[in-house]
Amino acid sequence: MMKKTTQVRPGREKKMSPVPDSQPGALQKKLVGKVVLITGGDSGIGKAVAILFAQHGAQLAISYLNEHEDAADTKAQVEAYGQQCLLIPGDLSKEAHCKKIVSLTLKKFKKLDVLVNNAAIHYPAKTLDQITTPNFLHSFRVNFFSYFFTTKAALPHLKKGACIINTASVVAFRGSSELMDYAATKGAIVSFTRSLSLNLAGKSIRVNGVAPGPIWTPLIPSSFKNKGLKKHGADTPLGRTGQPNEVAPSYLFLACDDSSYINGQFLHPNGGEIVNT
To answer: Whole-angstrom Cα distance, residue 189 to residue 182?
Structure first.
């Protein structure tokens, strides 16, 4: 319990009761014994997060669509750190599959400590009327509904100290003229994250997110033509696109006890762009 003390400004730490704890944690692996489920973990940001988490002692379950070669490489890199990696292919736009990936993770590892909702898709369109209804609906089903359904399935199995980390995007905060529906899905993720964090705070389950800027992932060359690829990331203050391994440490921070007093927040590895947070 804190005791009231009267001091002359600016004060003396040694006269405080209790004295503030300023010592860093011991240098050690940060996720030993943890089980983590990552959606979209076969490549890009999800892959980098999986490998970094494995390096810090976590067991991994990875959900992906059908990129089997990429997923196998991720699995091999996770196992190189002595950790197990369960691969679960399938379509996250379907609620039944969202439930399945949680159940298979629990069947394999008997528990779940960290959920990383990361899977996403986008369809660039220069005007609103170029956004087709099928693409619009698919974007929401993959980018947002899967987060909702997977979290809902996982929640009964998350215990005190568990973490949920949602991937948003810089475009959720400043918009995008050619990714309007994608930006809308990411905005929904921001609101969902903030609301869920308040709802679960009493259970000591933290909910945070990461809002990357332009990152070099397979989604980029599969979505943009050569001209767009050359400009990708060039308009950031750092003048370049980011790499997945430059984003992964944000997830590690939010997943481990280093961020024990952070809830309902977003980290912004975006190349230096200032956004309204």
So the answer is: 11
Strands of the sheet with 114-117, listed across from one edge: 85-89, 59-64, 35-39, 114-117, 163-167, 206-210, 266-267
Q: What is the pLDDT of residues 73-88, one digit of tens each?
A: 999 999 999 999 999 9
0.85 surpassed by pTM: yes
For 265, the token pair is 């927040």
Angle at CA of residue 217, ends 211 and 222, nearest 5°: 120
Please state, in angstroms and rounded to a whole number, the distance separating the CA atoms of residues 27 and 21.
17
- Give the catalytic positions in this structure: 182
Cα–Cα nearest to 71, from 40, 99, 106:
40
CATH class of 30-267: alpha beta
Kindly list the domain boundaries of the chain, sorted by start residue. 30-267
